[in-house]
Amino acid sequence: MKILYAASEAQPFAASGGLADVAGSLPKALVEAGHECMVVMPYYINTVKPEVREKLEYITNFYVPVGWRSQYCGIFTTELNGVKYYFIDNEYYFKRDFGLYGYYDDAERYAFFSRAVLEMLEHLEIKPDIINSNDWQTALIPIYYNIYYKYHHNMWGIRNVFTIHNIGYQGQYGLELTEEIFSIPRHLSSIIEYDGDANLMKGAIEMADKVTTVSPTYAKEILNPWFSHGLDRCLNSKQYKTCGFLNGIDTDMYNSKTDKDIPANFSVGKMAGKKTCKEKLLEEAGLPGGDSPVMGIISRLVEHKGFDLIKCVLDDVVCSGIKVVVLGSGDKQYEDYFYYMQNKYPEAVSFKCGYIPAYAKRIYAGADMFLMPSKSEPCGLAQMIALRYGTVPIVRATGGLKDSIMDYGDESGEGVGFTFQSYNALDMLGAINRAKEVYDDQTKWKKLVETGMKKDFSWKQSAKLYIGLYEELCSWES
Ligand code: GLC
Predict the structure, then answer these.
(1) Ligand 1: does its nearest atom lie under 6 Å from the Cβ of 244?
(2) CA distance 225 to 7
(3) Are 136 and 167 in contact (CB under 8 A)?
(4) Distance 213 CA to ligand 1 centre (A)
(5) Tens-of-pLDDT digits for all 478 residues of the chain?
(6) Is 257 domain-assigned?
(7) Is residue 128 domain-shared with residue 227, that is, in the same domain?
(8) In angstroms, rounded to a whole number, what is the distance separating the alpha carbons of residues 372 and 336?
(9) Are 435 and 465 contained in the same domain?
(10) Which ligand 1 atom is nearest residue 168's CA?
(11) Residues 240, 281 within the same domain
(12) How far is the CA of 36 from the centre of ligand 1 (A)?
């Protein structure tokens, strides 16, 4: 099969979150499974590293309709790990200084991008069997395909899959943008209209042939208003075409045996390097050494990641003898809070504000425990990465956290972490205390660490599920 994966970010070119990891690793797995896979993304000229930019090859340019205007679009390409990458170039839209998103004209930028993807297929005469679009930024692709392109020469019969990585971001705008920016004629405006807004994710759910999300539990959770950010009515009516596949991670990139970003390598049976990683991490974090357990937190500092719970009980955690190493940035109230805690407990709490990928790896490798108390978590990749580096996750049983981390207390003996059920600070503290108890019995702890390291979180299994879904769509009659 020929698959086009459309995303607003992809590793290793431009990344702001988990979507980039998935867009960087799933296509690679599809190619390894014998399929042809292409990735299309915006050309963020200020974000792509100069040495990578040099390798991109210019192919062509054309003009793309955005409302009543026509905008320049250049196409660049390169190949990596057998995956063909296409970059949509327009400096007015994508040459920006402060990150990938959050600009006043994001609606227009991604309307342009979505339309440009389909125009590119026509200009280059590429006909994929499947287009897999991701999140609100590419939600207009299945919509434009259905209203403008499906009867075009060479475009008939392409199937559209839409993947939700986080339902919290739906691309909600005023209805006045419908014609002017989204190029959707008034008589078709009901496609994106929802609760008085133009809602791009709702439109994609309506128009895609299949909707997927990034874990089986999240696929069920988003049918419920507590998780759905208002989209439950829409999703409940489309259950027949919705499913959830757990993400994998790039097991070459995250490999404690070969990683060059960590001070010492280690693997099951050869764990001496993990001790070195812990010592070096404490040094780097400015904390005194010793035997106490170290708990890592690497996250965007936003409410739904569970920081309100952490704020309630961090004093107790520190008093129980756990050292805490935090890396992340986001809402100012949480940044201020971690600075405050670092000042209060200079020997036990360390906070670095920002996102430093190599330091993140040193935390994964050097910590003993990893905390993710998310209120909601579509999939979450950090808990799987932590396990690869012999670090035991403590998570709230929600979304992909529930699907990937079985509790240590489970009768099966296959538990790899500590989980708690309700979104409650004392329940979280209970899970942390249970982890500490097991840590204090080093024989049990070492066994737990090695069980976790042996788990397979590669894309092998999940890529098969995507392929199965794509094959089902290809077998539909045109
Ligand atoms: C989003 C979700 C996260 C998921 C990632 C990749 O960032 O919040 O849970 O792991 O997408 O699908």
Answers:
(1) no
(2) 27
(3) no
(4) 10
(5) 999 999 999 999 999 999 999 999 999 999 999 999 999 999 999 999 999 999 999 999 999 999 999 999 999 999 999 999 999 999 999 999 989 999 999 999 999 999 999 999 999 999 999 999 999 999 999 999 999 999 998 899 999 999 999 999 999 999 999 999 999 999 999 999 999 999 999 999 999 999 999 999 999 999 999 999 999 999 999 999 999 999 999 999 999 999 999 999 999 999 999 999 999 999 999 999 889 999 999 999 999 999 999 999 999 999 999 999 999 999 999 999 999 999 999 999 999 999 899 999 999 999 999 999 999 999 999 999 999 999 999 999 999 999 999 999 888 888 999 999 999 999 999 999 999 999 999 999 999 999 999 999 999 999 999 999 999 999 998 7
(6) no
(7) yes
(8) 19
(9) no
(10) 8
(11) no
(12) 25
The Cβ of residue 225 has, within 10 Å, a number of other Cβ atoms equal to 11
Ligand 1 pocket, residue 165 CB under 6 Å = yes
* Residue 353 and residue 221 share a domain: no
Of 165, 374, 404, the one to substitute when testing ligand 1's pocket (max ligand atoms within 8 A of C-beta) is 165
Ligand 1 pocket, residue 221 CB under 6 Å: no
User: Where is 130: in which H helix or E strand?
Assistant: strand 130-134
C-beta of 385 in contact with ligand 1 (< 6 A): no
pTM (2 decimals)?
0.95
Q: Where in the sequence is the domain holding 291, given as residue range(s)?
A: 272-456
Looking at the 3D structure of the chain, how many domains does it have? 2
Beta carbons within 10 angstroms of residue 12's beta carbon: 13
* Whole-number Å distance between alpha carbons of 467 and 464: 5
Lookup result for tokens 């006909």: 127
Task: Indicate if 59 and 142 belong to the same structural domain.
Answer: yes
| Cα(50) to centroid(ligand 1), Å | 28
